[in-house]
Amino acid sequence: MIFIFIYFKKSDKLMIMKILYLIDSKKYNYHKRLADDFISVTGGNVIDTAGADPGKQYYDIAEEDPDVVITFDLAGHEFRTGNDTLSLNNIYTRFAHILFHRSSHYGRELKARQNLSMFTFIPSGEDAGICRRDLPEVPNIDNFVNISYKPESDSEQKENLANIALWWSDFKRKAML
Amino acid sequence: MKLLIFEWAAGTFTYNDLVSSFDEKGISYRTVSYQFDDKNEDEFFEWRFSKVLDEDDYDAVFSVNYFPLVAKCCHSKGLKYISWSYDNPLDVPDIERTLGYAENHVFVFDRIQAEGYRKKGFSNVYHMPLAVNCKRLDAVKLTKQEQQLYSSDVSFVGKMYDSMFSQYLSLMDEYCRGYIDALVNTQSKIYGYWFVNEMLTDDLTARINRHFKELDPATEFVLPKEALSYAIGAQITRNDRLILLNLLAKRMKVNIYSWEKCDLLRNVNYMGSCNYYDQMPKVFKASSINLNITLKILQSGIPLRVMDILGSGGFLLSNFQPELAENFIDGQDVVMYESIEDAYDKTLYYIQHDDLRRQIAASGHKKISEQFSYEKQLSGIFEIAKL
């Protein structure tokens, strides 16, 4: 597996950041294209969870030892421990879970307890407020502004890329990266 | 009362039972979890956890096992921190840097360990035995197929402790190797008293570390006394488990449930690991004899495995543990052994006496449900913490 590295400065040391995207292209046909857009801004590599053996794939992810894992629409939340908790919780890294639909779309998967290093981004401010109230086990809920999963024109696509860059910079600050 | 529960992200065995007891007591709580890379230093965790503490008006933070950075955050906000451990030893490097915070109320299930900390001046460390949720365990029923699957003469749930002992030993000079060998041989014959810590003097550990340096002048590795003590305990436990299981497997059906298969076990059926909540109680219910071979370094306390076996109504054959002997009558509620030979003889005897085994298991179950409930232990904890 080949990783695209980007360099960033942390504690005055030049470090290499390993970014991993988790997508489910079977469930969401826009994931692959969207991952390309994000990667053009952030760098990184994609793991498609569609049809994979969750146990094996979880260990592959853990073994990569990524600095950041970015998931779309809670891809990878189906990896569970014997006690039905999220397996991803056990990886020491920062997570951004980006949702492109209202919270009600996700059901059980959004109710699972996330660890404190996970940040969940929800497209609607109002919906984010509801989630903060109703999902006490999802600790860091934020609003995800103006990134369309189906840009319909070139200008919308350009705007999307700019907004991804803005989001990325904001997330790095929030996650102390 | 409103609690913030901190849970290690990999999960803790007792979490579900703990929160059901909070639910029954009408205690409200929120749970947050985290995976530490370094339990003593994590700027990001301190920042996020402090933020969570500010989000509500909590009376205390509660965790299973002790987390120094949770203690640090609570200390900085003057908020009570209660930790109740099922790990022994506490397995936290440099624990004494944070243990003495006035906000801490640290409960350990091994009385000797609690006394050890109190003698060092940590008056906020208390002894509190573990608990069991018999209501949950009583509700676990086995189907015919499960009865067949889990049934055995003897079952053992636990790991084989593949420790660093041999590596440490191979790097010692002849004198230290002989000394440690003798120590292991003597301690392995004694049940109920752990004298290794007294025999590992500062001079001895200094000599061991000096020799490491002579072998490799560039090494920065230093073997702390606690790590050597743990390695010795793990080695003795490993030997006990290997010998007893191999001996018994020559005479009867023996099942082991463990994360890793041990190639040194002969004729012992490796059953894989078993899930704590669903499968483990079934193993204990379906096995004629459930073995508990305590990690030797655990000096007096009753380990969680014993609670689980008795709570499930299983028959327990355990090594002698002082607190087990104080709370349960040997031969009436549980059966205890004082050597490998004794364990072997008692297994052969009890495997032939079904009624007696059932009677003992029932008596042990009754006693544990009366004396070691979550309700009782948590009331004790909250009373001490003045909550």
Describe this structure in words.
- The complex is a heterodimer of chains A (177) and B (387).
- With 177 residues, chain A is α/β, with parallel strands linked by helices.
- Chain A has one domain: 3-Layer(aba) Sandwich (Rossmann fold).
- Chain A is built from five helices and eight strands.
- Chain A has helices at residues 31-42, 54-64, 108-111, 125-134, 154-174; strands at residues 6-10, 13-17, 19-23, 45-48, 68-72, 94-98, 118-122, 140-143.
- In chain A, the strands form two sheets. Chain A has a six-stranded parallel β-sheet. In chain A, strands 1-2 form a two-stranded antiparallel sheet.
- In chain A, helix 1 packs across helix 5.
- With 387 residues, chain B is α/β, with parallel strands linked by helices.
- Chain B folds into three domains: 2-131 and 376-384, Rossmann fold; 134-161 and 235-371, Rossmann fold (3-Layer(aba) Sandwich); 165-231, no CATH class.
- In chain B, the strands form two sheets. Chain B has a six-stranded parallel β-sheet with strand order 2-1-3-4-5-6, sandwiched between helices. A six-stranded parallel β-sheet of chain B has the order 9-8-7-10-11-12, with helices on both faces.
- In chain B, strand 4 (80-85), helix 4 (96-99) and strand 5 form a beta-alpha-beta unit.
- In chain B, helix 9 (174-188) packs across helix 12 (225-249) and helix 12 (225-249) packs parallel to helix 16.
- Chain B is globular.
- The termini of chain B are close together.
- Classes of the chains: A alpha/beta (177), B alpha/beta (387).
Short account of what is shown:
With 177 residues, chain A is α/β, with parallel strands linked by helices. Chain A contains five helices and eight strands, in the order βββαβαββαβαβα.
